[in-house]
Design brief:
The protein is of the alpha+beta class and about 350 residues long. It is built from 12 helices and 9 strands. The longest helix has 25 residues.
Amino acid sequence: MAADIEERNRILCVSRRQEIREIVVEGTGMDEQIEMLNQSAPALIEANEMPAGAPRGVGRAGNIVAQQDNSGSCGCGVAPDPGATGGGGAVSYVYAIGRVEARFPNLAAEKEFAQATGRADTAGKTDQQTFHAVLSQRANRYLIRQLCWVLTIQGLETYLLALRDPADIDLLVEAIRPAPSPHDIDVVIGQRGPIAPPQMCNGLMVPIVMSDQIYSFDREALIKAIPKPERITAEQFGPAAEELFNRIMQMTDNAGATDEHRALNYLAMRYPAIYTTAAEKFGQDCSLTRVDVRPSPLASTRNIVDVIFSYTNRNTDFTEKLFVRVDVTEEFPFLVTKISPYYDR
């Protein structure tokens, strides 16, 4: 008789669990059915105790539903997929020009670096040369990963750098340089992320940039790499190019995060025609009076901006405008229209 009761209770529990699964799939009446089962299941279990080896949590429909997902497996302890929630915001890209610096995130990393320095031959080297030499050694590559890498713009700590590809770790060592100069330039292209937690870099809380490209050079090398027009002497071209570069770098809040600043920084690094034009206009007794960036009227499905350079004649006050059209839709900007006359509409 007891065996018959036990069998009926078992069949009833299995039947009700199956009903709950069907209700979950159909998406209707789930709350009422769960409440009904929660009220009846304890009485069944009390009438006939569960076997000692039975898994906990299978007697209540609430636990059954909570422990199972649509695939029938437990989702406990698994990090959620950000792409599956559909809650991701717009992607923000960075095309920034500044200086890369290495920082010790904590006292332990600083002491470990000091021990590695004690094992290296650093006689006759400056502190910066020693720092570069120690990190350049293959045996000390682990220290590069322990440091935090900061991009400063106009002397302000602006971003914390994280490499998307660990193979780019040598680019960080190249950026610190054994003999730094005030004219050193580091360009970082990547995707902007959240604000760094305070424990990441000794309390520094700035946005993290997942960098895809880092390249380093100095201002003199940049000017020399720009093709010089035949009709302009080197004495004229060098100062003209340097002044234009300084004007772009000193524009207010140029952190390389907005579309306008990304377009400007891209042109400063990749489009030598703007320097050639500046030298020609200076030779015509003109001054660079404005640099504006506006959304292009031709932009529809793409994010395109017009970068406008205004040159004013020093004698007649006549202003001539030239523009370059740049596509900044994705991470890497590119040229749409070469430098051309611009007419106000």
